[in-house]
């Protein structure tokens, strides 16, 4: 078993070290296993399965820095990799989250040599992180690309290390460019600098030496002023990059798909999850280095791409389960069955389970109490069904692990035995008991009895609850006809759903209409035309141009939106909505923008390239200024796309005329992933990169013959003047900050005006509001391929909802109003974050509050706020909670 | 002539990306084979302590 939370939580035998398998000795595990689960005769089997599509998500392996002799990872015990440091910080790791030097020694070393080293162990006072180990490096390894994630994880590790070890821990990060181009990343970086006091040192460390006595590490580096500095650290963390393993490369070879220089799957910007071979899709780091939310987007996008190709054979191989008819137990005397789980030795190793079982059997209304080794195993579930039927049980209590993971499983078992799934109560005697009180078994046993008694008291009052069926209107509204919106619409339509695109302009295409080419060199207009043609020829897609959204009513599955076209408003009914309203380029108010037509923005330069503007032939000296309006106090985010875009255009200028002088004035070059290769190419072509600080921005003076641009050179530390005839400003991408739209769907905007997704990591293409999805730059600025990925991902997430057409139900745990008691004060209506309660408009109880079960999330806010005691939370009713509290008070 | 399509998908890799692809496909009507070479699913993300920029627990 790899770690205590592994799924499946099962042990596996490592055949390379097992004595039984290698030498036919030992065999102890077979003897002691109570479940007879050990079978030494099992061998590898070859299975052949037929499939319509394949998705490759083989991931990466962390770069192995052993071959770097200057950092001495293999020899110095206090030089660790970032992956190892991640485990050091983890509460389930080898040091249980304690940050210590010599972390790789066993906790209680047995060997004499290790014992001596262990005496030198101390809590580190100074830790250094070295960035770009195994990335952006073609001298010591062949990884020219940027791994995209290391800057952020190093900052995170430094912050968490300080949390663990105390704020006096000195953390320094040695870096080349700080790359934090993701959503909320720049703020995190700024906080690390100013709030957490983490040192950022722009330098590539030359070498590390060790003090053989203490194990301390001496670091030699050249600072920005060119001085050689030697400093001592207790620990060094190497921020290792992401690498594609040999195994994955072999797999790609067998499948005959093309790889890039860095070993990643080759994909096109307009089909960003399709490999070079039809029917094989790719997702995650194998599709270029990326972090978790992008991997999650890739995952859904690959699912959508694979699904599009197989749309006509959907639901041909899945199986339907037949529901068991529900027994009516209303009015019956409670007859409770209690199941106590040993969880192997997890619970039984501490708690006296037989004694708890015996105790439970004598509690009020308990008909039967049973102890099981693993309540969650299939045989235990089958037995549970049998007992429920045989003894005529109508309430079930399971005392085991956490309901978070296992409640649905047991509820399923109840359903299979004909019981309403809410006639179930689970109490956690593992996480809340045997794990935390493992040194006090007697007390733990008493606590287990208390917990079981409380659960039984609550279960006795449980009532069967009804889940309301939600009808899903099988049509979709996509707001925004740019790349992301069109991609989402195309995927949804190809899977058979009627899709409406709402575009306020007169044509589709959005900001992409202004782009010249992608970072991979594809002609954007050609591909965009093809996409627009696809949309136009798809009879499932209805495009509403010159149309705005005037209002939205309803909830998941049943929205009614008001569309306004040419002054006329028409309603549109739809089941789900995708918001893809994009972002636009900032109108800069600095660097003399607007005062001279030689000062333009990135998209204006794209236009010149697109139209082969003859002015481009006369450019002798071109300057790009980066971060115009981005990474500033009023806009504290990185616009993500500008570095690559400027580097790409700089190359194009050089390729047009190698004699043109091209300068890029930047703060950090953020060509993440394989975009780094463009940065490398630009330098090779002679593009000159000059870094500036935000405190010392370049100055632009408009003169008749040229633009005079002055910047402090970071190498010379002296002002340099460039006479240019073209200045391109990499203007920030700003969101539309559409508060009206946000309000229509009850979805949040962040401080800058981008939409806030459901979960920063795991829900990047959906909102917390059910049935509403997000794609494109309205979420965060992103290049073509990422906008398309998110468009596909939003479609995929929407599809999983649309596919549940006949099986989408509300939860039974919702609030309900006792109208007799309701005083119509309206507090519940104002407090509910989901707009679920409202006043009844008509009928006998008109004016009283009513809860819409479809919108209710069962949070209980209204219940607590109701001064008349009129609102009840089904399944957590006041009498149930009080009965638990009273039961706790009884002495066992 | 168009060959007959199969309504199932093989997903190779049980990390965060593979797992979610499998879930999306299964939830939209396809039979999924999720293939993982190790003894458990979860991949690298399960080994991380916390995640940026929210410092959420990775498990």
From TrEMBL, chain B:
<protein>
    <submittedName>
        <fullName>NAD (P)-binding protein</fullName>
    </submittedName>
</protein>
<dbReference type="GO" id="GO:0051536">
    <property type="term" value="F:iron-sulfur cluster binding"/>
</dbReference>
<keyword id="KW-0479">Metal-binding</keyword>
<keyword id="KW-0560">Oxidoreductase</keyword>
<dbReference type="GO" id="GO:0016491">
    <property type="term" value="F:oxidoreductase activity"/>
</dbReference>
<dbReference type="InterPro" id="IPR039650">
    <property type="entry name" value="HdrA-like"/>
</dbReference>
<keyword id="KW-0411">Iron-sulfur</keyword>
<dbReference type="Pfam" id="PF13450">
    <property type="entry name" value="NAD_binding_8"/>
</dbReference>
<keyword id="KW-0408">Iron</keyword>
<dbReference type="GO" id="GO:0046872">
    <property type="term" value="F:metal ion binding"/>
</dbReference>
